[in-house]
């Protein structure tokens, strides 16, 4: 799905990502993990052109992102952020932004897919709980018929029950054909959801493969011994 070709990102003379070469498959959930400051969110943001490489290229289904219209790319590849970002207005208003030609049947289907009651359509988005708001943002992404999802620590602000509910929802969506690239710093979460892993340390890719392979990566010893909490 996404391919990173010798990608470097620098900010103010400081390396954020260094010579990253990796492929993200067009199926399942690929988790990006590593300590704080490793470059995880930057890697994710490259995938919808919220960031751009200093050198190197990122491709999506074989097409260089530099040659794709950012708005069209973001319609095809949705993003769910760390903090829920509902717009002012009702839940329906939020879905209309993503699908102006949509009707209530389509909106209800998106809410159902995000494990929300369609009766919430007329609810003020600001009145939703944290878990509901994050799932409403997911529904807003789904109603646009995105081909793939980018998720930047989407459950970090949620308590255990809504966090696990969101994870189960994501695993189900991936199984039904929506590939995902998911950033987390939680090793336990990775073990629950990951089909594949990209591990970063200090901006360098130190592992690309299975979750089981992480234990053999010396650069991750401290991170893993802390339970992935750093």
Secondary structure elements and pairings:
Layout (H helix, E strand, L loop, with lengths): L1 E10 L2 E11 L4 E5 L6 H7 L8 E6 L2 E2 L5 H7 E4 L10 H8 L5 H10 L16 H13 L5 E5 L7 H16 L4 E4 L3 H7 L2 E6 L2 E6 L11 H5 L5
Parallel strand pairs: 3-8, 3-9, 6-7, 7-8
Antiparallel strand pairs: 1-2, 1-4, 4-5, 9-10
GO molecular function: ATP binding; ATP hydrolysis activity
InterPro entries: AAA+_ATPase (IPR003593), ABC_transporter-like_ATP-bd (IPR003439), ABC_transporter-like_CS (IPR017871), P-loop_NTPase (IPR027417)
Organism: Egibacter rhizosphaerae
Radius of gyration, whole Å: 18 Å
At CATH level 3, the topology is Rossmann fold
CATH architectural type: 3-Layer(aba) Sandwich
CATH superfamily: P-loop containing nucleotide triphosphate hydrolases
Instruction: Work out the count of structural domains.
Output: 1
Record the strand order, biggest sheet: 6-7-8-3-9-10
Q: Tell me the fraction of residues in β-strands, as a range.
A: 25-35%
Helix residue percentage: 25-40%
Q: What gap, in angstroms, lies between the N and C termini?
A: 29 Å
Low-confidence stretches: none
CATH class bucket: Alpha Beta
Principal-axes shape call: globular
């Amino acid at each position: 799905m996404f391919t990173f070709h010798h990608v470097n990102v620098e900010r103010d003379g400081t390396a954020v990502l260094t010579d990253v070469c990796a492929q993200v498959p067009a199926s399942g959930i690929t988790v990006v993990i590593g300590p704080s400051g490793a470059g995880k969110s930057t890697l994710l943001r490259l995938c919808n052109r919220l960031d751009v490489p200093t050198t190197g290229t990122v491709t999506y289904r074989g097409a260089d992102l530099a040659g794709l219209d950012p708005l069209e790319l973001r319609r095809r590849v949705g993003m769910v952020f760390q903090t829920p970002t509902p717009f002012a207005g009702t839940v329906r208003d939020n879905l209309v932004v993503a699908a102006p030609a949509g009707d209530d049947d389509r909106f209800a289907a998106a809410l159902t897919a995000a494990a929300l009651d369609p009766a919430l359509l007329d609810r003020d988005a600001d009145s939703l709980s944290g878990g509901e708001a994050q799932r409403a943002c997911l529904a807003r992404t789904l109603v646009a018929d995105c081909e793939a999802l980018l998720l930047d620590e989407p459950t970090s602000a949620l308590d255990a029950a809504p966090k696990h509910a969101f994870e189960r929802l994501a695993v189900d969506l991936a199984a039904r054909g929506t590939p995902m690239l998911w950033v987390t710093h939680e090793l336990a979460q990775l073990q629950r959801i990951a089909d594949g892993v990209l591990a970063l340390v200090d901006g360098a890719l130190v592992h690309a493969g299975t979750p089981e392979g992480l234990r053999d990566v010396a650069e991750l010893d401290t991170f893993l011994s802390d339970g992935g909490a750093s």
